[in-house]
Structures are given as structure tokens and as C-alpha cells.
Amino acid sequence: MLLQTWSEVLTASFQNLWVGVVGFVPNLVVSITIFIVGWVVGVVLGKWVAQVIHALKVDKALNSLGIDELVSKAGFRLDSGAFIGALVRWFVIIVFLVAALDVLQLTQVNIFLQQVVLGYLPNVIVAAFILLIAAVIAEPLKKVVAGSARAAEVASSALLGGVAYWAIWVFAFLAALNQLGIAGAFFQTLFTGIIAMIALAGGLAFGLGGKEAASRYLEKLRGDISR
Fold first, then answer.
1. Which residue of 108, 121, 154, 181 could cross-link 149, Cys pair, CB 3.0 to 4.6 Å?
2. CATH number at residue 128
3. Which of 105, 137, 172 is the last residue of a domain?
4. Do 73 and 167 lie in a common domain?
5. Number of separate domains in the chain
6. Which domain of life is it from (predicted)?
């Protein structure tokens, strides 16, 4: 009687295992097929996008802005086609991977990919773009502000240029962190304080440095009026 009971239990267990395997294998095959198709589509689409970017000569336009120097300082070679193509390739692959995992009903992994990877990746791209814009405009703006201050005979022209340069970088850094959702309220408060400090420092520097220039201008204006 005991042996018969154990035999029935083992038979039922193996039957359930076989039914589970038979039910899982088709889903596994479909999931693998979806992933392979997604990989092929991602690779092909990524190469096509890279070729389009190269045909549009985007790198040439970026070189004229001095982006190649910034990229080379970071130890990389400027190739916008390869970079954007890689983003497109992995985005497509991850989308198909989400679909493949959905077939296997791996809910938690699927939620992670949708929320963390696909949901957060656009924010990372925007944050990187913000820092790239800052790298492009910070140095030219520094030269413009310093040159304008020198033209106005302000003694602290270099200081004003430096303030403009670092103001751009601080603003871009805080904007990038805010885009990434990292301590948004804290950095907004910090940014407000920094802007106030920069405005006060710039006002004092301009006031002290431009004191003599303003005095000469007022003397000239008084002389013109008295004529």
C-alpha cells in the first residue's frame, strides 16, 4: 500500500513536470525567435542610421564647433554615426527583449527593463546633450563676455569671463542632474543660491572695475552738456 502511494506520487510529479516542460518549450522557442529577430533588426537599423549620419556629414559640422577637441580630450574619437547607430541598435534590441520576456511571463525582469532601462535612457541622453551644449558654448561665451568687458574698459574683464564660463557649466550640471532626477529640490535650491552669489560677485566686480570708466563717461557727458 505504501509503495503504491509513493508510486502514484512520483508518477503525478513526473506528469506535472512533463506538462510544464511541454507548455514552456513553445514559449521558450517563441521568445528566443523574437529576441533573435530583434537583434538582427537592431543591428541592421543601427548600421543604416550610422550610414545616414555619415552621409549627412554631421561630424564635419561638429568639428567646426570644436566638438572633436572635447571628445579627444576625453580619450575618444568623434564618430556621431557610430554613437547614434549604437543607441538605436541597443534600443531596438531591448524593446524586442522586453517582448521576449513578456512571452516567458518574467514580469519582474520586464518591469525593470521598461522602467529603468527604457524609461531612464531618454533622460540620460538628454542630460548628456545638455552637458555637450555647455561644452560648446561655455568657452565662446567666456571670450565674448571678457572681450565686451575689455571694450568697456572694465578692469576685471577676465573675472567676468570666468564667471560666465563657470555659470554655464554650473547651470548645465544642475540641469543634467535635475533631468536625471537626482536630488532635484536640493539642487534647485543650491542653484538659486549660486545664481544669487554669481550675480552679487559680478555686480561688485563690475562696479569696482568699472568705477573709473563710469567716472570718465560722466565727465565726458557733463562736458558735452555744458557746451
1. 154
2. 1.10.287
3. 105
4. no
5. 2
6. Bacteria
In a domain, 153, yes or no: yes
Cα-only R_g, the chain: 31
Coil vs helix vs strand at 106 = coil
What pTM was estimated for this model as a whole? Answer: 0.55
The boundaries of the domain holding residue 11 are 1-105
The single residue listed with the C-alpha cell 567676468 is 160
The contacts of residue 187 (CB under 8 Å, 6+ apart) are 174, 177, 178
Query: What span, in angstroms and rounded, lies between the C-alpha atoms of 86 and 81?
Result: 8
Report residue 48 as a C-alpha cell. Answer: 543604416
**3-state per-residue secondary structure call for 134-174:** HHHHHHHHHHHHHHHHHHCCCCCHHHHHHHHHHHHHHHHHH
Residue 100's pLDDT is 82
Which of 80, 105, 130 delimits the end of a domain?
Answer: 105
Alpha carbons 30 and 34: distance in angstroms, whole number: 6
Q: In this structure, what C-alpha cell is assigned to residue 164? A: 560666465
